[in-house]
Amino acid sequence: MELETVSLGNTGTKVSEISFGTWRFGHENDEGEVEIDEDRAHELLDAYADAGGNFIDTADMYGDGESERYIGNWLADRDREDFVIASKIYWPTRKDDPNGRGLSRKHLRRQMDLILDRLGTDYVDLLYIHRWDDETPAGEFMRTLDGFVRDGKVNYLGTSTLEPNAWKVVKANEMEYEPFRLAQPRYNLVNRETEPNYIPMCEDYDMGIIPWSPLAGGFLTGKYERDEEPAAGTRGATDQQFRDSYLTEENFDVLDVVEEVADEIGTTPAKVSLAWLLEHDAVTAPIIGARTVEQLDENLAATEVSLTDDQFKRLTDAKSA
After folding, report:
1. Does the reported pTM lie above 0.85?
2. Lowest-confidence range among 34-48, 220-234, 285-299?
């Protein structure tokens, strides 16, 4: 299996058709255990690169900066130019510091320097605002981000949001600064809130879409059963918000269709769910995460799954926005 490359939205840069997300790198769970330590992180990055992957997604707050440091140490033994690195800024990074979060010029400049230092590079290919900051004027953060591009610290800008508001992005992009060229919303077969306005906006402005949570936090893998208690240790067993958001009758109706299509093809629900995004005209490259090389390999194998027009439509129509 060899990942193909696609254009990074409306830019001249080429990226792998699946991006590798690293939010678990250095992340401590409630028991104080690191979910993915540096050795495992490097194993996963090796496997991704060996499959032809070049598009790595991180953020300044993943693992309190450890994710970027792990990646930087790994890149030190490779050619930086072989990879497209994306990071993000917004969430608090300094305890009890009122200026240690958001998109103020002060916070952006400080975090940009820290990102580059941890990654051991002079620039990142793609910098996202991790959320919208209504407390900072858009003109302030757009001018600061534009400066990063002019200074060569950033190649492209993007916006990453949970519940995006299309008009805010459009208004920012109409300023006389470097625009957002990529968008990273949550998007999958059960989370469709972006379809009425945000995705049409991205298509109209030719912004590439890099979906996060393509498997709905694991729901679309088929690990959960209707009317059965989630297995011990799963998010469904330990996270009430996850249960309320995903373990619903409406979502299980969608999963029924996913599993039907998987049976027809002879593959897994996870691969079908990823294949739907890969074949979506508006999507550039979904972001996958993995705890093990085996999980990573299985998700990357979604690129080998082909959906018929009828199967794609049935999946699309399984849940409305």
Report:
1. yes
2. 220-234
